[in-house]
Amino acid sequence: MKLAYILNTYPLPSHSFIRREMQALERQGFTITRLAMRRPDTDLVDSRDRDEAERVEYVLDQRALRLLAGLVPHALSPRFWRAAALAWRCGTRSEVGRVRHLIYLAEAARVARRCTEEGVQHLHAHFGTNSTAVAMLAHALGGPTYSFTVHGPEEFDAPRALSLNDKIDRAAFAVGVSEFGRSQLRRWASFDNWDKLKVVHCGVEPAAFDAPQDPPTSPLRLVSIGRFVEQKGQMILIEALARLRDRLPELHLALVGDGEMRPDLERAIDSHGLRGMVTLTGWLDQEGVRAQLDAANALVMPSFAEGLPMVVMEAMAAARPVIATYIAGTPELVQQGKTGWLVPAGDADALAEVIASAAATPRETLLTMGEAGRERVRARHDIDTEATKLAGYFHAAASASSSD
Prior knowledge:
By secondary structure, the chain is of the alpha/beta class. The protein contains 16 helices and 13 strands.
């Protein structure tokens, strides 16, 4: 079966799960055309991402006039005017406006043409934002059936502006990465469409974690991994460390990642006198991230909003307990007292106390928690198992389309 994956900016350091998913499907015999709207605007530090970028066709590499000219063959078709009306209506609700949605229509025409040329039987988009808008409009122009995966939290913050109900209504199916994610899709889908809503977890490659390293001995070393943006909650983590500076002076945190909030974090670290306790590593490749997990006793994920973080899965696969907030799909994976600790989002005092508890936890207990987490993530998030689920939905969608 031939698929096209429709993406916005790809690949990014945080998109390794998409690459793994496509590669797992290719191992099962799928042929996948990778169509992204735009190139990454940052340097790719991981060689796997650089190799992946070589396989991607970037729609917006086309000159604007050539992209618009792609609409001409559709202009006399009633289907085109229905698609244009759909784009206009979605743009009316959207924060980005009608003009942007007409650009999406031009992108969709290009996608539809490439699908015809490549014999693509189904489109799949990641994130229910503009990538799914393009997939929906390509289908409206006569392209293949489509589906999409919603991760959150962006889609759940603005479901009306993103026309999430229209996207679900026209899709062959829609995926949440957790039961929580599916529950949020059910808020915006009609009851008649509930059977379209599936759960397919993001996955890890268990073989990459076959030989977990023993964690360091005391003092406690923590690692936090993610973009430096408000929703990831790193500022609360800095506040929690400030409360522990005198109680646990040898505690160390590695902050892996980068982003718009880095200057704010650096100022907070300096103002609390935490330079000796916190290291900012910048973005790291896959091996660098694994090395930071190996060097830590636990992962801390203090997010305010999430879907189901890949770094939590990777930490558990590396046999590390997880300190995370009790939000979204995270409690479906992290089990309080068994594989880690859950705290209320935004509560620096509670986070500080849990970190102190982790520091006081015997090494043997931490090892037991890490192993329990490893077994749980292997059972629930094996990428080949999850890709098999997704493959079944793709085949069913193509079969239903061919019988219509």
